[in-house]
Amino acid sequence: MATVPCRCRFFFPPVSSSSPSGDIVVTSRRWSPVRPLAFSPVVSAYISSPDQREREKESKTHNGKLISSVSNPLVKHCVKLRLSSSYRRSNGSVLIVGCTPILEICTFHRDETEPSSIIDQLIVLDGISIPDELNRICSTVIYVSANVLKKISGMQSIDSTEVIAIMRMPRSFCDLEMNGSEAMFHSLLPSPYRLLVLDGIQDPGNLGTLIRSARAFKWDGVFLLPGCCDPFNEKALRAARGASFQVPIVSGNWSQLNMFASKQRMKILAGHPANNVNRPNRTSFLTGEVVNRLASGALCLVLGSEGNGLSFEALERAELISIPMEGLFESLNVSVAGGIFLFMLQPQNQRD
């Protein structure tokens, strides 16, 4: 049998028996010419095609799909949901990171609708067991590697983010400038007693914290004036910890707010720094007497950003109120001040 010399040399361990097929057999520790290696068509395609290698990284596990490539289309979709407000709006979907907020949202919606109707997909770290409740309400579970989970979540540490949910935009959210209507606004807040109004809050952490505080102190809803960041921004969602799905949120302008407040006979208050040199004389302090005076009527509380303060419209249209403070501190962080206002002015039955 003729042998074709090969430029490549390979070392084979000793073999004691000869091959019945007539192939060359090495019987001692020495270099020997061998036949070129022959690959199956599948292996050859895998070696020659980078795209094929990426596809081969996906396999089946836990009766679900395991994704280990950050270039997977689903991974790209999730990253865009996390980063782009317009992409979230066009898809009607939101990315929720963490098992705790996901469970909070599902628990809140359990009585009024099927939780499965708000979860499209669950993305789980490979090797992690998800709670039975999530298993029951979502049939589409996709497992991913640690690197993919970091890419999707945008976090370096995934110790507390083993589960991510692609959820539908809550029906309790209404953008009056985009596709909302006055009728939708009134349907979300048919008879409001306490409404938190955020005026140009651009920091997502502060906005999310205020939404969570509003939910904690039983306020009826949140109204976002122009200049506010997206309440479904990744940092805002992280700070809100699921509250963005549990309280009505309406985005609109001053004209729409004034019309709504007038129809609902709501007083408009605005928090103002106590020690600000420009504090108008008509500003009152948040005392027990003032709280009791405001307890019986419906009201809107306007909070402005730390950097720019209240807008001109808020200063002109609202009754200003301040938190009394000692020392020379001009103001508190807006989420801290907001928490105090929300607690002190919460519905009467909550304070009793």
Sum this structure up briefly.
The chain is an alpha/beta fold.
Verbal overview:
This protein is of the alpha/beta class. It has 2 domains: 56-168, 60s Ribosomal Protein L30, Chain: A, CATH 3.30.1330; 173-351, Alpha/beta knot (3-Layer(aba) Sandwich). The protein is 35% helix and 18% strand. The protein has 15 helices and 14 strands. It has helices at residues 41-48, 50-56, 73-83, 85-91, 99-109, 132-137, 146-153, 182-188, 204-216, 234-240, 254-264, 288-294, 312-317, 334-344, 348-351; strands spanning 59-61, 64-67, 93-97, 119-125, 141-144, 163-168, 173-175, 194-199, 221-224, 249-251, 267-271, 284-285, 299-304, 319-322. Strand 8 (194-199), helix 9 and strand 9 (221-224) form a beta-alpha-beta unit. Helix 1 packs across helix 2. The longest helix is centred in the middle third of the chain and has 13 residues, at 204-216. The protein is elongated and about 60 Å long. It starts with 40 loop residues before the first helix and ends with a helix. This is tRNA/rRNA methyltransferase (SpoU) family protein.
